[in-house]
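Standup notes
- DV: blocked on the single-chain target, sequence here:
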Amino acid sequence: MTGALFEIAFVLAAPFWLLMIFLPGRAVTARIATSPLTVLPVLAVYLAMALPVFPELWTAVSSPDIDTFRDLTALANGAGAVWAQVIAWDLLLGQWMFLESRRLGISPWLMGPLLVLTILLSPFGLLLFLVLRLRAVRTRGTRSGSGLPDRAVAAR
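- DV (later): unblocked, structure below
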């Protein structure tokens, strides 16, 4: 059961990633990407895996050290819970990146591969997106990443 839940975590998130990567211009994609509820199925998997190892999970997060975390991830449900948590947060991060890219007019042809990188190695994908976002914000004439035009920021 644990192995199946581990695999299901990504399968539940995959349709949302596929929409953002392959159908970025569709209204349904934008509507779905604006909802944080997309992660609820993945969080259900997280709970199913985390609850049986909750004492170990609590120990790992309440007094973190590498050995305690290693002990947690040595348990099948512990590793599965961490995986499901990563899948959920990566999906939320990907949705934010998708929405920001649309707001800033970043090409979907550029964002598609960047979202794939974010699925696989989210810190690298995020770092590259933040650089791309900074360039896009500067190009659009906005200040400090607020997304507001300079005159709107000055008027506030």
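- Follow-up: The radius of gyration is 18 Å.
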